[in-house]
Specification:
This is Beta-xylanase. The protein has an eight-stranded parallel β-barrel, surrounded by six helices. It has a single domain, classed as Alpha-Beta Barrel (TIM Barrel), CATH 3.20.20.80. The protein contains 16 helices and ten strands. The chain is of the alpha/beta class. About 45% of the residues lie in helices and about 15% in strands. Helix 13 links the parallel strand 7 and strand 8. The chain binds (3S,4R)-3-hydroxy-2-oxopiperidin-4-yl beta-D-xylopyranoside. The site of (3S,4R)-3-hydroxy-2-oxopiperidin-4-yl beta-D-xylopyranoside has 6 residues, from loops.
Length: about 350
């Protein structure tokens, strides 16, 4: 809310008459129920709401269930959530036709109770597949049926509750060729259009995305995705957005990021930063934390400065549960909050990126 913020600043700089100060103190004393919501414009979600965009976080089921410091920060700061794992194939369909919605339902219920939208993640991916599917030696026609029925069931279950789906995840190699996967190898590239059509039939209101990493810069991989997206749109396939995961290394936000997002936006597609984190070699120095703060600001502005940017999701809330140390050995400290839920300089960078007056 740019105007409110600017007005607040103007008002704050003018000294208040003593009687008004007295009235304010009395009001504060009389209103012990004042919550952080009263200062919503100064939270990440306050700024995002004011701009009509999403600020999201990936949410793990375990901290959601057991860590109230985590949920306090999550619900104060974020107006969108993504299931970090709970909506992936191995989690929801551990046996063929045998669905387990417990963790996914928990997140959707939490989001609805806290005024948060849900990004669905993810339907057709090469990873986190259950072994019955990975090792099932299915024919192309069986696999087609399996994929369709999975999409019908999952998207159908959350119809009206998920505002955007990462229908397809990580389909390209770095050189722009199609990445090998169960789907690509058996069904060919046509599975992408089919998956998008099936998802659209199951929930016509959900925005349907292709999501990937290392596509933030203008490079061979993003060129290939751009060509595919253009072709899908020309073929009338319901593709609505591109998700730029944005798993960055400190100091390495690509200089071509904004121009690259803009070319996708110029096709009429939404663009979203879907999995932002900025990893630092451990232990993180104060210079690196300051650089990370600048990087959070730049990365978020690179999206929000583009016409069809729908929002930014960070891949976790606090360093306590981040996937980074387990995946990129020697790296960590990638998120806006530290392990004790103290806001890092990165939080201020992200906040300034969202605040149009900063
Ligand atoms: C990661 C999760 O954060 C981990 O908990 C899990 O063990 C592996 O997957 N790209 C994606 C996400 O699209 O689904 C991945 O999430 C991170 C990379």
């Amino acid at each position: 809310m740019p105007h409110t913020t600017a007005a607040h600043r103007r008002r704050a700089s003018r000294p208040l008459p003593l009687v008004a100060v007295g009235a304010l103190v009395a009001a504060a004393v009389a209103l012990p129920q004042l919550t952080p919501d009263a200062f919503a414009a100064t939270t990440l979600r306050g700024y995002a709401d004011g701009r009509g965009v999403r600020i999201g976080a990936a949410v793990g089921d375990s901290p959601l269930r057991s860590d109230s410091a985590y949920t306090t920060a999550l619900d104060r700061e974020f107006n969108s959530v993504t299931a970090e794992n709970a909506m992936k194939w191995d989690a929801v369909e551990p046996s063929r036709g045998g669905f387990d919605w417990a963790a996914a339902d928990r997140l959707v219920a939490h989001a609805s109770a806290h005024g948060q939208g849900v990004r669905g993640h993810t339907l057709a991916w090469y990873a986190q597949l259950p072994s019955w599917l990975k090792n099932g030696n299915f024919s192309a026609s069986e696999l087609n049926t399996i994929l369709k029925s999975h999409i019908d069931t999952e998207v159908g279950r959350y119809k009206g509750k998920v505002y955007a789906w990462d229908v397809v995840n990580e389909t390209f190699n770095e050189d722009g060729s199609m990445r090998g996967s169960l789907w690509q190898d058996k069904l060919g590239t046509g599975y992408i259009a089919n998956a998008l059509r099936w998802a659209h039939a199951a929930d016509p209101a959900a925005k349907l995305y292709i999501n990937d990493y290392n596509i933030e810069a203008d490079n061979a991989k993003s060129d290939a995705l751009y060509a595919l997206a253009k072709q899908l749109l020309a073929d009338g396939v319901p593709l609505h957005g591109i998700g730029f995961q944005s798993h960055f290394v400190v100091g390495q936000v690509p200089s071509t990021m904004k121009a690259n997002l803009k070319r996708f936006s110029d096709l009429g597609l939404e663009v979203s930063v879907t999995e932002l984190d900025i990893r630092i070699p451990l232990p993180a120095s104060s210079d690196e934390l300051a650089q990370q703060s600048a990087d959070y600001k730049t990365a978020s502005e690179n999206c929000l400065g583009v016409a069809r940017c729908a929002g930014i999701t960070v891949w976790g809330v606090s360093d306590k549960y981040s996937w980074i140390p387990g995946t990129f050995s020697g790296y960590g400290a990638a998120l806006p909050y530290n392990e004790s839920y103290a806001a890092k300089p990165a939080y201020t960078g992200l906040s300034n990126g969202l605040d149009p007056t900063a």
